[in-house]
Amino acid sequence: MIRIGLRDARAHFGRFVMSIIAIALGVSFVVGSFCFREMMNNQVDQMMASNSDADVYVRGNKEQKENSAASFGGASDSGSGSASSSSDSTSTESKQYNRIDVSLVDTLNGIAGVDTAEAVYEVNGLVLVGKDDNAVSTMGGVTVGMGLAKGTWRSAKLTHGRWAQSKDEIALHTFAAESAGLKVGDTTKIVYPDGPHDVRVVGIFSTASSQAGAIIIGLNADTAKKYFEQQTGQVGTARYLTVYGSAAGGQPLTVEQQQTLADRINHALPSDAHAVAITGQSVRDDNAASTKKALGFIQPLILIFAIIALFVGSFIITNTFSMIVRESMRGYALLRSIGASPIQVFVTVAVQAILLGLVGSGIGIGLGWIMVKGIVALMANMGTPMTSAVDPSVSDMLIGLLVGVLVTFIGASLPARRAATAPPIQAMNETVNPEKPVWPRGIIGTLMVVLGAAAWLLCWRIAWANDAGVAVSPWTGFNDWIKTLGTGWPLGIGAGLVVIGVIVLAPALVTPTSAVLGWIPAHVFTVTGRLATRNLSRSKRRTANTAAALFVGVAIVSCLGVVAASAKASVAGIVDSGLKSDFSAMSVSSGQIPDEAITAIKKTAGVGTVSRSRMLMGVTYGSGDDATAAMTFAEQPSLFTKVFAPVTNSGDANKALRNGELVVGLQVAKDNGWKVGDTVKVNGRQVVIDKAATAKAQEDYQAQVKAKIDGLTSEAQRLLASGDVSGAQAKSAEAQQAAEDAKNVDPATLVKTKTEVTHVSMKVGAIIENSIYRSMVLMNDDAAGKIANQYTMFTIMLFINAKQGTDVAALKTRLIKAVKPYYVVNVQDRDEFKSTMSSMVDQILLVLYALLALSIVIAIFGIVNTLALSVSERTKEIGLLRAIGTSRAQVRGMLGIEAAIIAVFGTILGMVVGVAAGVVIRAVYQANGLSALSIPWNQLGVFLVLAILVGLVASVSPASRALKQPVLDAVASE
Amino acid sequence: MARHSAHGKATSSKPSDHVVARAIDLTKIYGDADNQVIALNHVNVEFERGQMTAIMGPSGSGKSTLMHCMAGLDQPTSGKVIVEGLEVSAMNQRQLTKLRREQIGFIFQSFNLVPTLSAEENILLPLQIAKKPIDRAWFDQVVHVVGLEQRLKHRPSQLSGGQQQRVACARAMMARPSVIFADEPTGNLDSHSSREVLGFLKQSVKDYGQSIVMVTHDPRAASYADRVLVLADGNITQDLRHPSYDQILEVFADEGEETHA
């Protein structure tokens, strides 16, 4: 029997091509997704191992809830709508602890077993200017400056030169050097937070793991510290101190050694330091886990498409085998009549299925591997090289193989059973058994959709209640439970229920829908249209399943399409309704705009007024433990008249700003329960020069230099005495050099600063609800001056108005020229301001279209296959139609209309569900910047037209097959 | 038997108005050179207008092949088929479609109706396919004759086998084709239903002058015909005018001997 099966498989091979492709696609996604996850995890582990390579970390011992947006990088402009809503959920994953005093380093260095203990300072938002005089940027991400010296970062190995010793020197990571085209000895520019600076590359270092496209610049430690303090407003404190142990002789410690060292440090730490030592391994594990969690959404996304492909695949296989079994019925009847058992007949069919599954999954595994390779190549091409392996593991392959074979077997088992159990006599009988009624599915499906919709409503309600600050429901127990639930769960469960519900429900929808969708074709092409419409209702399950592939794909794409369009519209809305200035300028590195650049802009001919938004660092409101952080900006009093029209919730925003009162975003007001007229304690920070410490530092430095020169001089004298004249000359030259160096040293590096906390009481003058200001507090410059100073306030954005009668286009050219030397400043007119967001959204949409294309390809397979099956079932009927005068074109038309209706059916279902999901998501994230709802009707229209085309294209080959059959064979009775 | 076969070959000359369809030197050979089966062997025959002609013969005699070639369903190896003065054997697909729409009606043994359409829709289907106007009076008349007034809204699956064949007859009649080809129209029916269907076909010939060519191996069915052609091994062996049931049975008894020999 197995032999018969194998022989049949060979004979049917042509038939199997489509099934093999479908299975291969599905399996490739499964394997690819696993492979991809492993690769990412590997990469994360590798990066953790080399980037957080300390043996012990010392951190605060008290967990803190801190608004992450209040730290640096919260320079989010209006564009952060949907992007930030997704990252918010991940950034809160990692726990924050209280900051600890950097001076602990001295304590730590005194502990036995500690090699070096250090605070490593990172400076974000730097821009490296490459050899071609352009800013170096990669797809992969950020440019980070780190204060590096010998021993501060064990995994970083100097390959050329040395570490930076002053603000004028930098060392570059190999990838950064490559991207910038720089080598040791080259001079270039680096844009520090306060402006461009000429620097010399003095060293190149490498790390074991690639840095996923990050540009890492090794700065002089003091320089890094200075900018770090400026950026964060945190002076003398750090989140982490890194400790390298000496137990392994310069090599990383084992986990036990780390633990021993951590215990010893904990023992030695003074209790008032509020600090605790933990092993490097546990930090790496935690960080890796949260990073992996953040990346975890990628695999399910790929898996969704794997499921679509496999679903369609199993369905194509069922169809294919139905055809094969139907055509071979006589053979099976013969086998049965000569004594084959049903099991044996089943085996002949099952063998073909398993063979098919093996071939399909084999190809799929290969495809998956190629896919991941392709992704990695693409990422490397875009500047995010990966160093981890991408080859699928044996378990990945086994999973792929198992999934492929199982899906094939399941798909084939129903037709195989039919082959096995059909009585020999029935083999001749062409009668198609009437389909089981579909109403039970209709009821179950409707129920699921209703439940899903209810979950969505709940989600909406939760979001609305959060927004309006009222309880979700009158039941407190329910409310508490809801609070722990958040909006994500109901949203996801609702989506799942609705999607599955629609798939369950779909067969019951086929007849009414095809009657509606068939109305036009039935009236334009009277006969063929009517025939096509009725044919669809013949096997409703098959029609619905065929449409399902397109349904899921279109649902995903149109949901994201609505969200994307809404995000665009929200930004455009802000600009159209609120923005009054002609230009805006901001830093591409999301950092501050250098003062020189501001001056340059002001001096540009034709510029009328320039308003600047300055962010105040580390501002908190309230007192003691209740103090909450909020993004705080200093604005010109004319902000609301010249730059942005306020959307006032209560109070008079314009008057409040002019009078030096606080103008509070709705979200902040709600979080803190503030009302207009309330008086709030504002705590700011000012960095001032610590005169005593500075004097001491200079003294120390002088003493240090003197000691060095003295040492060298006495060494020179000793050498001279021993007759080594050239040695002595070298030493005294060195001494002279040291003295010279000391003269050249930037006195600023020796200035010690300290932070003073300021407290001012201010009145809440107005609450506004412009979406870009929702989570901000605004005050005028005078008020800001009382709580912060130039070291703790940075210009984030400029709004520029042209002088009356100036040619705006020409002014733009002049402005761009004016800021060119500062590299980071980007001047945009109103349309560009809109389109920065739009182009980002468009890029997301591009990915969506790729996904759509994929589901279209899969859907075409499904439709082709379904039509092929139904053509093979209707051979006689089509023959009859031809015999009574139906032309070939009419047959093609009939099948084309059938296919188009299937495609449109799936597409419309997908659109309805997708748009509904998009509307819900938009409503839920309204507070996060999705203030306007926009449904991309044009796009949806294109999808619909595309669906019709897809259907028509899919019908071509089955129709040809139907027409190839001679009329005679179809109608001849025998 | 030889003395009867002469008649078939004699009527091969010029066309005349009373002939609706004719075969001229029609030959059909199946299979390749090694394994030839001669289904039709230089057959010449004329089918007369306003008559019901039955083609009889044992399995493999070529009776179905003759009908299929006449109806343009099959391509003859050589020879000509002419229906209403049109050469069917030289037609392309488009012309064949036109021919089927205008000149030919079909009744098959089984699977005559489109299962998704009601009886009425099935009857009107050929006209709609051809985008011809529907003659309601004619429709009512045809429906009345086949006795389906009460079942017009039913789907084929809701009709008995006899009713289905009557719907098929009505459909074939509806377009008023020059000739109806019926392939074992009663093959799947019980004797009662057979009589109904045959009675209707006979009536349509008598009352409306419809030409019908029917392939059958049922002597009872053949006895309704005005003329019975008997085929054996690709040749017309007998051409009987208005034969009685007994005459036909006698022919079959002979054939039985022939084929078993």
UniProtKB/TrEMBL annotation, chain A:
<feature type="transmembrane region" description="Helical">
    <location>
        <begin position="301"/>
        <end position="325"/>
    </location>
</feature>
<dbReference type="Pfam" id="PF12704">
    <property type="entry name" value="MacB_PCD"/>
</dbReference>
<feature type="region of interest" description="Disordered">
    <location>
        <begin position="66"/>
        <end position="94"/>
    </location>
</feature>
<keyword id="KW-1003">Cell membrane</keyword>
<feature type="transmembrane region" description="Helical">
    <location>
        <begin position="937"/>
        <end position="956"/>
    </location>
</feature>
<feature type="transmembrane region" description="Helical">
    <location>
        <begin position="345"/>
        <end position="372"/>
    </location>
</feature>
<feature type="domain" description="ABC3 transporter permease C-terminal">
    <location>
        <begin position="850"/>
        <end position="966"/>
    </location>
</feature>
<feature type="compositionally biased region" description="Low complexity">
    <location>
        <begin position="68"/>
        <end position="94"/>
    </location>
</feature>
<keyword id="KW-0812">Transmembrane</keyword>
<feature type="domain" description="ABC3 transporter permease C-terminal">
    <location>
        <begin position="304"/>
        <end position="424"/>
    </location>
</feature>
<feature type="transmembrane region" description="Helical">
    <location>
        <begin position="438"/>
        <end position="459"/>
    </location>
</feature>
<feature type="transmembrane region" description="Helical">
    <location>
        <begin position="844"/>
        <end position="872"/>
    </location>
</feature>
<dbReference type="InterPro" id="IPR003838">
    <property type="entry name" value="ABC3_permease_C"/>
</dbReference>
<dbReference type="InterPro" id="IPR025857">
    <property type="entry name" value="MacB_PCD"/>
</dbReference>
<protein>
    <submittedName>
        <fullName>ABC transporter permease</fullName>
    </submittedName>
</protein>
<comment type="similarity">
    <text>Belongs to the ABC-4 integral membrane protein family.</text>
</comment>
<keyword id="KW-1133">Transmembrane helix</keyword>
<feature type="transmembrane region" description="Helical">
    <location>
        <begin position="516"/>
        <end position="533"/>
    </location>
</feature>
<feature type="transmembrane region" description="Helical">
    <location>
        <begin position="16"/>
        <end position="36"/>
    </location>
</feature>
<feature type="transmembrane region" description="Helical">
    <location>
        <begin position="893"/>
        <end position="925"/>
    </location>
</feature>
<feature type="domain" description="MacB-like periplasmic core">
    <location>
        <begin position="17"/>
        <end position="228"/>
    </location>
</feature>
<feature type="transmembrane region" description="Helical">
    <location>
        <begin position="545"/>
        <end position="567"/>
    </location>
</feature>
Automatic annotation (TrEMBL), chain B:
<keyword id="KW-0813">Transport</keyword>
<dbReference type="InterPro" id="IPR003439">
    <property type="entry name" value="ABC_transporter-like_ATP-bd"/>
</dbReference>
<dbReference type="InterPro" id="IPR027417">
    <property type="entry name" value="P-loop_NTPase"/>
</dbReference>
<dbReference type="InterPro" id="IPR017911">
    <property type="entry name" value="MacB-like_ATP-bd"/>
</dbReference>
<dbReference type="GO" id="GO:0005524">
    <property type="term" value="F:ATP binding"/>
</dbReference>
<feature type="domain" description="ABC transporter">
    <location>
        <begin position="21"/>
        <end position="258"/>
    </location>
</feature>
<keyword id="KW-0067">ATP-binding</keyword>
<dbReference type="Pfam" id="PF00005">
    <property type="entry name" value="ABC_tran"/>
</dbReference>
<dbReference type="InterPro" id="IPR003593">
    <property type="entry name" value="AAA+_ATPase"/>
</dbReference>
<dbReference type="InterPro" id="IPR015854">
    <property type="entry name" value="ABC_transpr_LolD-like"/>
</dbReference>
<keyword id="KW-0547">Nucleotide-binding</keyword>
<protein>
    <submittedName>
        <fullName>ABC transporter ATP-binding protein</fullName>
    </submittedName>
</protein>
